[in-house]
Amino acid sequence: MCSHGSSDVVENLATKHPELINSVDEENNNGLHLASRQGSLETVMYLIETLKMDPSVRGLFGRNSFINACYGGHLQIVKKLATKHPELINTVDENNDNGLHLASGRGSLEIVMYLIETLTMDPTVKGEYGRNSFIYACYGGKLEIVKYLATEHPELINTVDEYNYNGLHLASRQGNLETVMYMIESLKMDPAVNGSFGRNSYINACSSGKLEIVKYLATKYPALINTFFFFGNKGYTPHDTTQFINTKVSLNRR
Fold it and tell me: Is the pLDDT of residue 39 over 80?
Protein backbone atom coordinates (compact mmCIF):
# COMPACT_ATOMS: atom_id res chain seq x y z
CA MET A 1 0.00 0.00 0.00
CA CYS A 2 2.96 2.36 0.48
CA SER A 3 3.45 2.43 -3.28
CA HIS A 4 -0.08 3.77 -3.80
CA GLY A 5 0.21 6.59 -1.28
CA SER A 6 -2.69 5.42 0.96
CA SER A 7 -1.39 6.94 4.19
CA ASP A 8 -4.42 5.95 6.31
CA VAL A 9 -4.13 2.32 5.24
CA VAL A 10 -0.36 2.36 5.77
CA GLU A 11 -0.80 3.77 9.29
CA ASN A 12 -3.42 1.17 10.14
CA LEU A 13 -1.24 -1.71 8.91
CA ALA A 14 1.83 -0.37 10.69
CA THR A 15 -0.12 -0.16 13.97
CA LYS A 16 -1.68 -3.61 13.74
CA HIS A 17 1.24 -5.39 12.09
CA PRO A 18 4.50 -3.62 13.04
CA GLU A 19 6.48 -6.63 11.82
CA LEU A 20 5.70 -5.48 8.28
CA ILE A 21 7.31 -2.06 8.57
CA ASN A 22 10.80 -3.01 7.40
CA SER A 23 9.83 -5.90 5.17
CA VAL A 24 11.10 -5.94 1.59
CA ASP A 25 9.82 -7.38 -1.65
CA GLU A 26 11.70 -9.78 -3.92
CA GLU A 27 13.56 -6.84 -5.47
CA ASN A 28 14.79 -5.72 -2.03
CA ASN A 29 12.56 -2.64 -2.02
CA ASN A 30 10.82 -1.68 1.21
CA GLY A 31 7.72 0.46 1.59
CA LEU A 32 9.70 3.69 1.72
CA HIS A 33 11.50 2.94 -1.55
CA LEU A 34 8.19 2.40 -3.33
CA ALA A 35 6.41 5.33 -1.68
CA SER A 36 9.27 7.61 -2.72
CA ARG A 37 9.05 6.43 -6.30
CA GLN A 38 5.29 6.05 -6.71
CA GLY A 39 3.54 7.34 -3.61
CA SER A 40 2.72 10.59 -1.83
CA LEU A 41 4.70 13.04 0.27
CA GLU A 42 2.36 12.45 3.22
CA THR A 43 3.11 8.72 3.19
CA VAL A 44 6.85 9.25 2.81
CA MET A 45 6.98 11.64 5.76
CA TYR A 46 4.91 9.29 7.92
CA LEU A 47 7.26 6.41 7.14
CA ILE A 48 10.35 8.46 7.98
CA GLU A 49 9.19 10.64 10.87
CA THR A 50 6.78 8.31 12.66
CA LEU A 51 7.96 4.83 11.74
CA LYS A 52 11.63 5.91 11.69
CA MET A 53 12.38 4.25 8.39
CA ASP A 54 15.78 5.21 6.98
CA PRO A 55 15.75 6.93 3.55
CA SER A 56 19.41 6.10 3.03
CA VAL A 57 18.74 2.35 2.93
CA ARG A 58 19.31 0.92 -0.54
CA GLY A 59 16.87 -1.21 -2.49
CA LEU A 60 16.78 -2.40 -6.09
CA PHE A 61 19.93 -1.41 -8.01
CA GLY A 62 21.29 0.13 -4.82
CA ARG A 63 18.87 3.06 -5.02
CA ASN A 64 17.88 4.97 -1.90
CA SER A 65 14.66 6.90 -1.42
CA PHE A 66 16.03 10.16 -2.83
CA ILE A 67 17.18 8.50 -6.04
CA ASN A 68 13.83 6.70 -6.32
CA ALA A 69 11.94 9.99 -5.94
CA CYS A 70 14.04 11.56 -8.70
CA TYR A 71 13.39 8.54 -10.90
CA GLY A 72 9.66 8.59 -10.21
CA GLY A 73 9.25 12.29 -10.94
CA HIS A 74 7.93 13.34 -7.51
CA LEU A 75 9.19 16.87 -7.02
CA GLN A 76 7.74 17.49 -3.56
CA ILE A 77 9.25 14.27 -2.23
CA VAL A 78 12.61 15.16 -3.80
CA LYS A 79 12.50 18.60 -2.15
CA LYS A 80 11.58 17.24 1.27
CA LEU A 81 14.26 14.55 1.21
CA ALA A 82 16.89 17.02 0.00
CA THR A 83 15.99 19.39 2.84
CA LYS A 84 15.74 16.80 5.61
CA HIS A 85 18.51 14.50 4.38
CA PRO A 86 21.00 16.55 2.30
CA GLU A 87 23.57 13.77 2.60
CA LEU A 88 21.52 11.85 0.01
CA ILE A 89 21.75 14.47 -2.74
CA ASN A 90 24.93 13.26 -4.44
CA THR A 91 24.61 9.57 -3.67
CA VAL A 92 24.80 7.08 -6.53
CA ASP A 93 23.33 3.65 -7.13
CA GLU A 94 25.25 0.50 -7.97
CA ASN A 95 25.44 1.62 -11.61
CA ASN A 96 27.06 4.92 -10.57
CA ASP A 97 23.90 6.86 -11.49
CA ASN A 98 22.73 9.69 -9.26
CA GLY A 99 19.31 11.28 -8.96
CA LEU A 100 20.00 13.75 -11.75
CA HIS A 101 20.95 11.03 -14.20
CA LEU A 102 17.70 9.18 -13.55
CA ALA A 103 15.55 12.31 -13.47
CA SER A 104 17.01 13.34 -16.83
CA GLY A 105 16.14 10.03 -18.44
CA ARG A 106 12.89 9.16 -16.66
CA GLY A 107 11.74 12.06 -14.48
CA SER A 108 10.49 15.55 -15.19
CA LEU A 109 11.92 18.89 -16.30
CA GLU A 110 10.88 20.48 -13.00
CA ILE A 111 12.95 18.00 -11.02
CA VAL A 112 15.96 18.36 -13.33
CA MET A 113 15.82 22.15 -12.97
CA TYR A 114 15.50 21.90 -9.19
CA LEU A 115 18.42 19.48 -8.90
CA ILE A 116 20.67 21.69 -11.03
CA GLU A 117 19.58 25.19 -10.08
CA THR A 118 18.75 24.73 -6.38
CA LEU A 119 20.80 21.72 -5.30
CA THR A 120 23.64 22.65 -7.71
CA MET A 121 24.04 19.13 -9.00
CA ASP A 122 26.39 18.93 -11.96
CA PRO A 123 24.88 17.67 -15.26
CA THR A 124 28.35 16.96 -16.65
CA VAL A 125 28.98 14.20 -14.08
CA LYS A 126 29.12 10.78 -15.70
CA GLY A 127 27.09 7.78 -14.60
CA GLU A 128 26.68 4.29 -16.04
CA TYR A 129 28.60 3.78 -19.29
CA GLY A 130 30.06 7.27 -18.88
CA ARG A 131 26.75 8.95 -19.72
CA ASN A 132 25.98 12.46 -18.47
CA SER A 133 22.53 13.96 -17.91
CA PHE A 134 22.18 15.26 -21.47
CA ILE A 135 22.88 11.83 -22.93
CA TYR A 136 20.38 10.28 -20.51
CA ALA A 137 17.70 12.77 -21.55
CA CYS A 138 18.32 11.98 -25.23
CA TYR A 139 18.19 8.25 -24.52
CA GLY A 140 14.90 8.65 -22.68
CA GLY A 141 13.34 10.84 -25.35
CA LYS A 142 12.78 13.64 -22.83
CA LEU A 143 12.61 16.49 -25.33
CA GLU A 144 11.97 19.33 -22.88
CA ILE A 145 14.88 18.22 -20.71
CA VAL A 146 17.10 17.91 -23.79
CA LYS A 147 16.18 21.47 -24.79
CA TYR A 148 16.83 22.82 -21.30
CA LEU A 149 20.24 21.15 -20.97
CA ALA A 150 21.26 22.12 -24.50
CA THR A 151 20.42 25.75 -23.76
CA GLU A 152 21.90 25.98 -20.28
CA HIS A 153 24.83 23.62 -20.82
CA PRO A 154 25.71 23.65 -24.54
CA GLU A 155 29.07 22.06 -23.77
CA LEU A 156 27.17 18.77 -23.28
CA ILE A 157 25.69 18.60 -26.78
CA ASN A 158 28.50 16.71 -28.50
CA THR A 159 29.73 14.70 -25.54
CA VAL A 160 29.98 10.93 -25.89
CA ASP A 161 29.79 7.97 -23.54
CA GLU A 162 32.43 5.29 -23.11
CA TYR A 163 31.20 3.54 -26.26
CA ASN A 164 31.66 6.74 -28.26
CA TYR A 165 27.89 7.20 -28.57
CA ASN A 166 26.54 10.75 -28.40
CA GLY A 167 23.02 11.82 -27.54
CA LEU A 168 21.82 11.54 -31.13
CA HIS A 169 23.01 7.95 -31.45
CA LEU A 170 21.00 7.00 -28.37
CA ALA A 171 17.96 9.12 -29.21
CA SER A 172 17.85 7.39 -32.60
CA ARG A 173 17.91 4.02 -30.90
CA GLN A 174 15.71 4.49 -27.84
CA GLY A 175 14.23 7.99 -27.98
CA ASN A 176 11.58 9.44 -30.27
CA LEU A 177 11.33 11.24 -33.59
CA GLU A 178 10.73 14.67 -32.06
CA THR A 179 13.93 14.49 -30.05
CA VAL A 180 15.93 13.26 -33.04
CA MET A 181 14.57 16.05 -35.25
CA TYR A 182 15.38 18.70 -32.63
CA MET A 183 18.94 17.45 -32.24
CA ILE A 184 19.56 17.43 -35.98
CA GLU A 185 17.64 20.52 -37.06
CA SER A 186 18.17 22.82 -34.07
CA LEU A 187 21.38 21.56 -32.48
CA LYS A 188 22.93 20.71 -35.86
CA MET A 189 24.11 17.30 -34.75
CA ASP A 190 25.31 15.08 -37.58
CA PRO A 191 23.52 11.71 -38.01
CA ALA A 192 26.40 10.42 -40.13
CA VAL A 193 28.82 10.48 -37.20
CA ASN A 194 29.87 6.99 -36.16
CA GLY A 195 29.77 5.59 -32.64
CA SER A 196 30.73 2.15 -31.38
CA PHE A 197 31.40 -0.41 -34.15
CA GLY A 198 31.04 2.42 -36.66
CA ARG A 199 27.27 2.67 -36.15
CA ASN A 200 25.66 5.96 -37.16
CA SER A 201 22.22 7.20 -36.12
CA TYR A 202 20.47 5.51 -39.05
CA ILE A 203 21.96 2.13 -38.16
CA ASN A 204 20.99 2.63 -34.52
CA ALA A 205 17.41 3.44 -35.48
CA CYS A 206 17.27 0.33 -37.69
CA SER A 207 18.66 -1.86 -34.94
CA SER A 208 15.85 -0.92 -32.56
CA GLY A 209 13.02 -0.92 -35.07
CA LYS A 210 12.36 2.82 -34.76
CA LEU A 211 10.42 3.04 -38.02
CA GLU A 212 9.50 6.73 -37.92
CA ILE A 213 13.10 7.69 -37.19
CA VAL A 214 14.35 5.36 -39.94
CA LYS A 215 11.93 6.96 -42.43
CA TYR A 216 12.96 10.47 -41.41
CA LEU A 217 16.68 9.76 -41.68
CA ALA A 218 16.33 7.84 -44.92
CA THR A 219 14.39 10.71 -46.48
CA LYS A 220 16.65 13.51 -45.29
CA TYR A 221 19.93 11.61 -45.50
CA PRO A 222 19.63 8.95 -48.23
CA ALA A 223 23.40 8.52 -48.25
CA LEU A 224 23.05 6.73 -44.90
CA ILE A 225 20.84 3.97 -46.28
CA ASN A 226 23.67 1.79 -47.57
CA THR A 227 26.23 2.58 -44.91
CA PHE A 228 27.67 -0.35 -43.03
CA PHE A 229 29.44 -1.07 -39.77
CA PHE A 230 31.97 -3.61 -38.59
CA PHE A 231 31.58 -6.23 -35.90
CA GLY A 232 34.58 -8.45 -35.46
CA ASN A 233 36.13 -8.85 -38.89
CA LYS A 234 32.88 -8.58 -40.82
CA GLY A 235 30.98 -5.67 -42.32
CA TYR A 236 27.22 -5.36 -41.91
CA THR A 237 24.53 -3.19 -43.48
CA PRO A 238 21.67 -1.61 -41.48
CA HIS A 239 19.42 -4.47 -42.61
CA ASP A 240 21.73 -6.94 -40.90
CA THR A 241 21.33 -5.31 -37.48
CA THR A 242 18.23 -7.34 -36.63
CA GLN A 243 20.43 -10.33 -35.87
CA PHE A 244 21.96 -8.38 -32.99
CA ILE A 245 18.67 -7.47 -31.29
CA ASN A 246 18.16 -9.15 -27.88
CA THR A 247 21.64 -10.68 -27.85
CA LYS A 248 24.56 -9.89 -25.64
CA VAL A 249 26.24 -8.01 -28.48
CA SER A 250 23.14 -5.98 -29.31
CA LEU A 251 22.78 -2.26 -28.78
CA ASN A 252 20.18 -2.82 -26.10
CA ARG A 253 22.68 -2.52 -23.24
CA ARG A 254 25.04 -0.02 -24.83
Answer: no
Quote the distance between the C-alpha of residue 202 and its chain's center. 22
What pLDDT, on a 0 to 100 scale, did the predictor assign at position 252? 40
Residue 68 inside a domain? The answer is: yes
Handedness of CA 115, 117, 121, 125 (dihedral sign): positive
CATH number, residue 55:
1.25.40.20
Alpha helices in the chain (DSSP H): 7-16, 31-38, 41-45, 65-72, 75-84, 99-106, 109-113, 133-139, 143-152, 167-174, 177-185, 201-207, 211-220
**Secondary element (H or E) of residue 172:** helix 167-174
Within a domain: residue 190?
A: no
Rounded to whole angstroms, the Cα distance separating 170 from 254 reads: 9
Mean pLDDT, rounded, for 32-39? 93
Contacts of 80 (CB under 8 A, 6+ apart): 41, 44, 45
Total domains, the chain: 1
- CA–CA gap between residue 171 and residue 116 (Å, rounded): 22
Given a contact cutoff of 8 angstroms between Cβ atoms, the answer to whether 74 and 37 are in contact is yes
- At 119-163, the pLDDT tens digits run 999 999 999 999 999 999 999 999 999 999 999 999 999 999 999
Measure the CA–CA gap between 129 and 92, rounded to whole angstroms: 14
42: in domain? yes
Domain around 29: 1-115
Confidence of residue 17 (pLDDT cuts 50, 70, 90): confident
Would residue 164 count as lying in a domain? no
Rounded to the nearest 10 degrees, how much is the dihedral formed by the CA atoms of 180, 149, 115, 61? 40
